[in-house]
Amino acid sequence: MTVVVVTGGTRGIGQGLVRSFARLGADVAYCGRHVTEAPDGILAVTADVTVREDVRKLWDATVDRFGRVDIWVNNAGLSTSRRPLWELPPAEIDAVVGVNLGGTLQASAVVLEAMLAQGHGALWNMEGLGSTGQIVAGLTPYGATKRGLTYATLAMAKELKGTPVKACLLSPGMVVTDLLTRDYEPAELENAKKIFTILADRVETVTPWLAERVLKGTRNGGRVAWLTNRKAAYRFATAAFHNRDPFS
């Protein structure tokens, strides 16, 4: 069996990935800052991805349970309130940058060293708004971290060239979670939903597809993306003929 670790697996996309990998027959471990008892056969570990010792604890617990780690998905992430940068408290900015970018870098450093030592592995980093240049007012810190994460992953891939370890990008697109709808006023949310109903998808729609593609693998530095430009263009062109409601 393939052994998969998902960080931030307690809710949202991370939780969906954990369940999807398990349904596809993988041995799965996940972490969160606050975890409850995991389903049968799944390993849950309390860990903070910004702390290298916690990441090593998660790696070691997975190896102790399943013998190795084949795939690691850095999914853990936060978003600030949807407000202009100058209105955000310093602690909120620090938390988002610390987890989304700092945590991914710290975890990746631990994981890549361990994968190189064991002689194989694939590290996947989760993209998001900003990764491919999208700019949205009110989400400056979040978008900046995701933009930086894409660069970091491609740089890791370059550093891994010629080794049996890969660094790859996973792009879920627009998914209906609390991060998507956070801090909208009711009228603003109704306007935003005009786009969401065209482009957004439910966790249970996206994560099985992502999990299957991750298990199949891709080249070092490759990207697996659910919402491609072509798919988005098709949805806009045919929106009048479809009654999509990802919120139902």
From TrEMBL:
GO molecular function: chlorophyll(ide) b reductase activity
Pfam assignment, any one: adh_short
CDD domains documented for this protein: SDR_c
Family membership noted in the UniProt record: Belongs to the short-chain dehydrogenases/reductases (SDR) family.
Membrane-crossing residue ranges in chain numbering: none
A single BP term in Gene Ontology: chlorophyll catabolic process
UniProt-recorded name of the protein: Short-chain dehydrogenase
